Amino acid sequence: MTDTRPPYAGTRYPRLAEIPAFTDYIATGWAAGPVPATPVPGAPEAAAAHRDRLSARLPGRAIVAAAGTARVRNDDSDYLFRADSDFTWLTGCQVEGAVLVMTPRPGGHDARLFMPAPFRPGDTGFFANAAHGELWVGASPGLPEWSDALRLPVEPLPDLDDQDLTGALTTETTATALVAQHGLEPSPLLERHLSRLRMIKDPWEIQQLRDAVDATVTGFAAVAAEIPHAIDHGLGERWLQGTFDRHARTHGNGTGYTTIVGSGPHAPTLHWVRCDGPVLPDEVLLLDMGVEARSLYTADVTRTLPASGAFNAHQREVHDLVERAHRAGLAQIRPGTEYLDFHYAAMEVIATGLHDWGLLPVSVDEALSPAGQHHRRYLACGIGHHLGLDVHDCGKAEYEDYMGADLEPGVVMTVEPGLYFHANDLTVPPELRGIGVRLEDDVLVTATGSEVLSAALPIDAAGIEAWTKAQQR
């Protein structure tokens, strides 16, 4: 009988790199040509200014920051890569595995970027490396192209092993992901300085946030238009979540955080990201959504819509109270006021309204006192935060930099009071149970006051009803 088995049958399956005929053949016959590096326009210039600001804060100290690597989703499948925010702020680069080294010199720092080079035809990695082989990931810019685009010296990543980084300041992403072999540990000093510097956005950053907010507003419109379809066809919250996520991926890098779509009894759940329930036609629909721009700056906006197009009396009463608190918070956003002033102003309105409804077991003053906080049963979360590359931006700042600081022009923050009456909360009357309302806007502190970047979306109940109906025509 003729043996029809392949020549390697009965032996171990050979690796392609071990077959000379294959490696010789796959190395030839490819059209060659440089692939340009295309960072977000303006990002390299903004990053250079950011490095100068950090350099002035930390003279004489070596600084290392890494882009990081994609996390494993399951087995050999990774999540989509998203570069570390501090690294992006300092480089304008989003290349997986890249590392920035800032070496001190008199009067500042010299910056160099170490980057994995793509594997091209003729390299074994071209067909064998799923992370950087061009047969797997497509044609990629080389190190010279990135150097020209970023206006930085770019060197091969393996050369990082030859660098003496002893005593360098580094971020948590860097210390844990890439350069542990140098004995580096995360530096709270560096992370605090980065958070403090990132609080004040420059004009380029503000424009990135404007673009992210504008794309988010049109994403809200796309979702509102789909509400009847989701109801009529039983597609539920997940359909609306997918609608926004597709919009975000089309008009930006994706979503800045997991999209929240909560209908009826799910609306009071602060982080309802499961989105596995129906869209109930007579209930409110809480939408907390944000597009992340391709520069990685993100919006964070919330509106609560009546799925039917009109609030009932109880839903509107709750929404009106949240709106009053929202306006009180917005009124405190201006230079020179303490960061937490907007929080106290909004909370006073909430506590007073709940007391008027008979829902507080103590007086308003007792509730607002540090020893009380009874009103927080229905609003346990914070009602605002800095916004930028991270949805909760500048989180490594100290209290006196963040909560205890005065607002300055260039700060971008959110204001987001709400009321959350859970369906199983027996302290509220039955007609309020299962109602959750949040209003969240993105706000820029200006030289003379503030600007609501998300003002294209109404915040009053009548305006929201009219806007929702308009999207569905």
Automatic annotation (TrEMBL):
Entry cofactors: Mn(2+)
Reaction(s) catalysed by this chain's protein: Release of any N-terminal amino acid, including proline, that is linked to proline, even from a dipeptide or tripeptide
Top EC class, one word: hydrolase
Keywords: Aminopeptidase, Hydrolase, Manganese, Metal-binding, Protease
Name of the protein: Xaa-Pro aminopeptidase
E.C. numbers: 3.4.11.9
Chain ranges of the Aminopeptidase P N-terminal domain: 45-185
GO molecular function: aminopeptidase activity
Any Pfam family: AMP_N
Family matches, as SUPFAM superfamilies: Creatinase/aminopeptidase, Creatinase/prolidase N-terminal domain
Family statement drawn from the similarity comment of this UniProt entry: Belongs to the peptidase M24B family.
